[in-house]
Amino acid sequence: MRNWFNGLASLWRGSGGGAAQLAAGRVVFEAAFDSPQQWVAGRSSAYPGMGPTNRGDHKLDHLTPRYCPGGKFTAVHRPDGLWDTDLLTTENSPGGFQLRTGDVLRARITLPTGAGAWPAIWTWRDGGNEIDAFEYHPDHPSLLEFSNHVRGGYRYWTDPTGAVAPGATVNLTVEFGSRSVRWSVNGTLAHADGRGVGPFWHAYLIVNLSVSDGTYHPKPTGTDPLSWTCHSLTVTRP
Hints:
Layout: H1 2-13, E1 26-30, E2 40-41, E3 61-64, E4 72-77, E5 83-89, E6 98-100, E7 104-110, E8 117-124, E9 131-135, E10 143-148, E11 154-158, E12 169-176, E13 181-185, E14 188-192, E15 202-211, E16 226-237
Parallel strand pairs: 3-5
Antiparallel strand pairs: 1-16, 2-5, 4-5, 4-16, 5-15, 6-15, 7-12, 7-16, 8-9, 8-15, 9-10, 10-11, 12-13, 13-14
């Protein structure tokens, strides 16, 4: 009975409902972006046939099996017009880490400056279970995209402080609550979706840099490499 009650308490702390706040928790994942134990490089079931391309999602990506020491994700132009891009996922990795309901993700990121760069931190499992911790496009310099594809809903959030900009470094916190996913930027709540992920959600983690093909956002104007940096990424669990 005690274990059952504690489980309910953990779900409530992760619900995002009312004034409930997530507990500080214990660290269950701390990213080392050069670790083959934590990550698989350049392959994901979020891409048709595990990659290397995903033209249907308006990406010029050609995934490569590179790891990303220091959290620097890059895209390098290819002669065929695609870009060799970096993607790391915990899916099929030896560690096999999955986020769960109630987890809190914290990341410190430096946004890209080049047109066409499309960085993201997101989740994926079994053809879905996607929560976008963030997406960014430099042509909308002060805007971050937050999405809950599990229960529907998204927010295009424009930073009123000027802290979100090409080349800026920001702190991002995402609380994967059962009844609400909450996104905070530099310690300030930016969006609470009131939908959540449900009590039994779990999904793998993806960190990557894509390149826009020009359909919804400008594609690169030249062939210079693109990059962004995820300086740190941790997940805590109640």
